[in-house]
Amino acid sequence: MKSMFKVSLLAATVMLAVGCQKEEEPKAEVAPAAEQVQAETGKAVHFKTDDDKAAYAIGVSFANYLSTSIEKPSEIGIDLNKDLVLKGIEDVFKGSAELNEEETRLALEGLDQRVQQKMQEQYAAKAEEAKKAGEEFRAEFEAQEGVMKTDTGLLYQVLTEGEGEKPSAEDVVQVHYKGTLIDGTQFDSSYDRGEPATFPLNRVIAGWTEGVQLMGEGSKFKFVIPSELAYGEQDTPTIPANSTLVFEVELLKIEKPVE
User: Fold this and answer.
1) What pLDDT shows up at residue 156?
2) How far apart, in whole angstroms, are the C-alpha atoms of residue 164 and residue 252?
3) Which of 76-80, 139-143, 227-231 has the lowest mean pLDDT?
4) pLDDT tens for residues 38-66?
5) DSSP run (H or E) holding 4
6) With bands split at pLDDT 50, 70 and 90, how would you rate the model's confidence at 92?
7) Per-residue confidence band for 14, with pLDDT thresholds at 50, 70 and 90
8) 43: Cβ–Cβ under 8 A, 6 or more apart, which residues?
9) CA angle 215, 219, 222 (to 5 degrees)
């Protein structure tokens, strides 16, 4: 995992540098032509030049970045005191930092390690939760009328029985399908794309390779695929680790591979 805190600290430093420079400037009457904006404090900030505006923009940009860097760890139970972050930056500019370079490096490395550990713990907990939920869902589905189970644990239900030929694993198939998580969240659909999908049957997840071979052309099946026949412990933005997947699949056409 890449460190986001060292960059954030640098960002904050630049932000504060701009702020310190502003505070050190003597107050003066601003010419009527100077541009101004309303600061969060309610006092007007005056821009005499484009450089002034650019300096202020740097401060805003880095402040936003710093806020994100502080808030993100709080989501996993690591609370960073914003006042202490700013105090550390201020002390550096005053030449009176409480930590030397080595102590700073070790503290940031320790923070990165704690963040990584927390994220791994959360990942493991969510994966275990998904595994348990999938087992319960499959047990309920298996008890439904007409549901069949293969030796590998693949569950399927015939929605429409086609009269056509069944494919082999080496065949190219054309299908329409919809895929959801067990809570009904859809993560993929050829229907939504407006065209069927075509692919070699032996180049998809194992649950598909096995299941579609049970279908004759013109069939529509519902598959409930355990995670070990799907994406296993792989975690993606749309499919969490250890997810049991639900598919409705129509086998439209079989294309024999070129010999």
Assistant:
1) 98
2) 10
3) 76-80
4) 545 456 778 889 999 998 998 888 788 88
5) none
6) confident
7) very low
8) none
9) 80
Tens of pLDDT, residue by residue over 162-213, are 999 999 999 999 999 999 999 999 999 999 999 999 999 999 999 999 999 9
Which amino acid does the sequence have at 217? E
- 27: helix, coil or strand? coil
Provide the CATH topology of domain 139-255.
Chitinase A; domain 3 (3.10.50)
Closest among 246, 234, 1 to 127, alpha carbons compared: 234
- The full DSSP string for 138-199 is HHHHHTSTTEEE-TTS-EEEEEE---SPPPPTTSEEEEEEEEEETTS-EEEEHHHHTS-EEE
Q: Minimal CA–CA distance to 88: which of 22, 9, 6, 11?
A: 9
The full set of domain ranges for the chain reads 5-98, 139-255
Distance CA 60, CA 77 (A): 26
Strand 44-47 and strand 35-38: the pairing is: antiparallel
Crossing angle of helices 101-142 and 5-24, in 10° steps, is 130
Tell the CATH topology of 5-98.
Answer: Helix Hairpins (1.10.287)
Q: How far apart are the two ends of the chain, measured CA to CA in Å?
A: 46
- Give catalytic residue positions: 177, 187-188, 205, 231, 247
Cβ-contact 127, 233 below 8 angstroms: yes
